[in-house]
Structures are given as structure tokens and as C-alpha cells.
Design goal:
alpha/beta, 2 domains, 7-stranded mixed β-sheet, 11 helices, 14 strands, SBP_2_dom, signal
Length: about 375
């Protein structure tokens, strides 16, 4: 069953509609958010959910999903996060707190390779660790990852962009996550986008080392120029600043890849202020982002499903803690794929997609 099938869309929509708990006020050292009561005679299982921050709608939705699932599985849940993207120290503190508390498992969206040693310490202490959204590098740093295929998400954006250009020259801005950290979600989306465009990426795990000019082979093919790789930190203000830097290098940019939808909104603000227009593609599929597709701010976005990541991860840890079977990776991948769908109101030939109206039925966040 594919995510674009009616039955799957209904299933995801039901899952999203069920998550109606109030947002969590989680930060730094954590928020104990479960009742801790016993259900069906089973002892409560201690689990920590550690996200990158507690303000990005993606992570807020993930926190909501985990809290809802905790009560269903009799999990004593603690929610924690870094202060912002890039706060390795905040995540390390939360991991150490989880070990000290005697938790049975950790769900984490790992900030970078900087938290790998702390994750190893947790696993050595007997905790079952599941990465969500961001596969660590290397993948076996954790027991298993539940995530979007971020490479595929980027490729869908690139395939759509190449087809939409219809042979026109592409003058490209790449607005990434970091320029001082290597994170798999960052290079997989960026490099996947370029692969979807039909551009040789050189080292597939390194942003910015591809040829800056050449031919793209996606769609009808054409010339391309990569103007910039700028880090927007995954935030709207960062996206605006990054786009301003790119426009200063070349005011004729007509295609913008963005790591996520807040970055895309910031990039659009910079383009408008400069009196410019460009096709913007992104990844996430939050309700605000899908609305930006509907309004025309974003041309296409690849939708992922944080509620599914959180609920499946919570269920897996509870099951393992009670002696059940461990989850397995998706065939051909080193993680469990929670799915992706391209959302656009301008479908391109040969690129599978759903409309913004369909995406709004299964989106997450506000």
C-alpha cells in the first residue's frame, strides 16, 4: 500500500486526528508527562523522547504523538530537547538524565555525530535507543531508526523541479541546515535533490562538492548553475538571511531548495523584499507548509509523518522492554521507512504527487 492510496491517506488522517493533546512545554532537562499508572497489570516502562528543539512544529507534533502513545502503552514518558538546532550539549544532558533515571529506552532525533558517544553510553547501560527522523552516522549508533527516507524526499523535489523547468536553465540556491556540522538529514535531502535534478553529486555524503555549473539530466535536461550552499539553521529568519546572501551573489536565482518549510518561508520573504520570484521546493509537510503550497509560496514539498515515527517508536520500546520482538529495518534500507509523499498543485509528468488539499487532510501541526 502506498502513501498516495486512499486507504493509506485515511489511515494517516485518522492517526493525526486522534492526536489532540495540548502541546508540551518541554525543554532542556525534561518534562515528565505520563501518569505512570499500571495498565493490565504491566509495569510502566520509562522512556525519554529527546528532540532537537521544542519549537519547530515538526518536533512539537512528534512530542504530542509520543505523549498520546505513552498512555496507550503504559509508558512513563519524559520529554526533553536541545534549546535549538545545534545544541549537542542539551541532548547529551538529556541522555545522561535518562540513564540516571533508569529508563528502559530513548527516542531521539540526534543533533549530530556529537551525541554519538552519549548514545553509546546509554546502550551500554542497557537502554534500547531508537532514532527518529534523523538517522545517525553511522546507522548502527542506535538500535534502529524510524524515519522518512530523506534521500527519496529530496529526489522527489529534484525530479519535480527538473520536470517543471521544461529544459530552462536552472540557477540554483541550496539552503541547507548547517555549515559547521554533518547531519545525515541535511546531506541526504540536499544530495537527493541534486540527484533528482540529474546532477552528479560527487561525494553523496557531502554538501557543496558538486560541480557548480554543468548539465542537469532530469526532465528535458538543461544547463545549471549552483549559486550557493548557505545554512539557514532550519528556521525562518535563518532562511531569509541565507537567501539574502545567495541573492547578493546572483540576483537571477530561479530555483531554491530548502531543508524545511520554515526555511522556505524565510527564503520567500527575502525574494519578495528583493522584488524577485523563484520556484521553491522543500521537505516536511506540516499544515503550515502545505498551506504554503496551496498559496503558491512553495512549489512542492515532500511530506513526512512525525506522528507515525513517534507512535511506532514508543510501541517498539514498550514491546522490547516487556520481552517482545525487536523491530526490523525496511528491506533494502538501514532504517524503518515511515513514508513520504510529494505535495504540489502543479503536477509534473512522471513524478507521483498528491494535491495540497489531499495533503491538508493528513498534515501535522497548526
Amino acid at each position: 500500500m502506498t502513501l498516495s492510496s486512499p486507504s493509506m491517506r485515511r489511515a494517516i488522517a485518522i492517526t493525526a486526528a486522534c492526536v489532540t493533546v495540548a502541546g508540551l512545554a518541554a525543554c532542556g532537562r525534561g518534562d515528565d508527562s505520563s501518569s505512570g499508572s499500571s495498565s493490565g497489570g504491566e509495569k510502566a516502562v520509562g522512556v525519554s523522547l529527546i528532540t532537537k528543539d521544542s519549537t519547530n512544529p515538526f518536533f512539537v507534533a512528534m512530542q504530542k504523538g509520543a505523549k498520546e502513545d505513552a498512555s496507550k502503552n503504559n509508558v512513563k514518558l519524559t520529554v526533553a530537547s536541545g534549546k535549538q538546532e545545534g545544541d549537542d550539549a542539551g541532548q547529551i544532558t538529556a541522555i545522561e538524565d535518562s540513564i540516571a533515571r533508569g529508563d528502559k529506552g530513548i527516542l531521539i532525533t540526534p543533533m549530530s555525530t556529537g551525541v554519538n558517544a552519549a548514545i553509546k553510553k546509554a546502550r551500554d547501560a542497557g537502554l534500547y535507543v531508537i532514532a527518529l527522523d534523523t538517522p545517525p552516522d553511522p546507522a548502527n549508533t542506535v538500535d534502529i531508526t524510524f524515519a522518512t527516507d530523506n534521500r527519496e524526499a529530496g529526489k522527489l523535489d529534484g525530479q519535480w523541479a527538473a520536470a517543471t523547468l521544461a529544459g530552462k536553465a536552472a540557477t540554483i540556491a541550496l539552503l541547507d541546515l548547517f555549515d559547521d556540522k554533518i547531519v545525515s538529514v541535511d546531506y541526504n535531502r540536499d544530495q537527493g535533490f541534486l540527484e533528482g535534478m540529474g546532477i552528479d553529486v560527487a561525494d553523496p555524503k557531502k554538501n557543496g562538492d558538486e560541480a557548480k555549473t554543468g548539465k542537469y539530466t532530469g526532465g528535458q535536461g538543461g544547463d545549471y548553475t549552483i549559486v550557493c550552499n548557505e545554512a539557514g539553521q532550519g528556521a525562518e529568519d535563518g532562511g531569509r538571511t541565507a537567501m539574502e546572501k545567495c541573492l547578493a551573489k546572483n540576483p537571477n536565482i530561479n530555483l531554491v531548495y530548502t531543508i524545511n518549510e520554515p526555511t522556505a518561508v524565510g527564503a520567500n520573504g527575502a525574494l519578495k523584499a528583493a522584488g524577485k520570484t523563484a520556484t521553491i521546493v522543500s521537505v516536511d509537510g506540516g499544515c503550515a507548509g502545505v498551506s504554503s503550497v496551496k498559496s503558491g509560496v512553495i512549489g512542492a514539498t515532500a511530506q513526512q509523518y512525525p506522528l507515525k515515527m513517534a507512535t511506532l517508536g514508543m510501541e517498539a520500546i514498550a514491546k522490547v522492554a516487556r520481552g517482545g520482538e525487536k523491530p526490523a529495518t525496511t528491506s533494502g534500507l538501514d532504517f524503518f521507512n515511515t513514508g513520504v509523499a510529494l505535495i504540489t498543485d502543479k503536477p509534473a509528468e512522471g513524478v507521483k504527487s498528491i494535491t495540497s488539499d489531499e495533503g491538508l487532510k493528513i498534515c501535522w501541526g497548526n
